[in-house]
Amino acid sequence: MATKKTTTEEKKGVVATGILIAPRMTEKASLQSSANAYTFIVAKDATKLTIRDAIKKEYKVTPKAINIVNLPARNVFTRGRFGVQSGMKKAVVFLKKGDTIAFSN
Fold it and tell me: Given 3.30.70.330, 3.40.50.2300, 3.30.1360.70, 3.90.550.10, which CATH number is that of 14-95?
């Protein structure tokens, strides 16, 4: 029986595509990006350490600080119907002066 060797990143559970879901492109986020603060939608179980490792792996920059915000689900009323806007977890990643993240469209 062959055993699979696991790397230290696999032991931590860090997979960049599983942690960082998408960059959050809003008016506020684009204004913050000029001040080296980038906003991402992240997995519900992501922590600051896993987000830091995913940013290092994906964008090759080291974050200076990371803030995490849990946005709850909200009840909405649109076009005569009731619905639910799903909640999410977002992370604001602060970089050193001179570091940037370029998003490809």
Answer: 3.30.70.330
